[in-house]
Amino acid sequence: MAIYAVDSNFFIQAHRDYYPLDVAIGFWNRVKELAHSGMMISIDKVKGELYKNKDELTDWCQGNLAEDFFTAWSSALPEYQRACEWASSRSDHYLRKAIDNFLDHSRADAFLVAFTLADKDNRVLVTQEVSNPHCKNQIKIPEPCKHFGVTYINTVDMFRQLGIRF
Predict the structure, then answer these.
(1) Dist. CA 117–CA 100, nearest whole Å
(2) Residue 95 burial (C-beta neighbours within 10 Å; 0-12, 13-18, 19+)
(3) What pTM was computed for the model?
(4) Over the Cα atoms of the chain, what is R_g?
(5) Least buried of 20, 77, 108, 134, by fewest C-beta within 10 Å?
(6) pLDDT tens-digit map of 29-44
(7) Count H helices, E strands: the chain?
């Protein structure tokens, strides 16, 4: 069975747009269950993105996710180097700012792609980003995933694969 590695936008967009914490309690209970079962994980860089705002979502994550939910990305250092080399090699397509943003150490995208790539037969990256190969001002997560053969899906598709309804 796959392990789902979630992007920060999994949490942020759910909380802000679709499943507010005070309304969609069933959604958040399922997220908690998946996190505690080990079927859903993320990386420390995503934790940094989620916790920087110190808001209601931060409080929920701190109170409901398992201590080991956010895994160190450093186990995927060779894959991170590959992701960086790929992004840097795409200067004929992407604007310099897009490459710099993707490679920015404070942003999780490159690290999350690398983490999923490190065990791509067992991990699926969950992101709300949508492929846009013609985009030049941002490297969307699906583009390096496609290049490296990393499976990526959105939140709804993850729940469909798991057979979860609420």
Answers:
(1) 21
(2) middle
(3) 0.96
(4) 16
(5) 134
(6) 999 999 999 999 999 9
(7) 9, 5
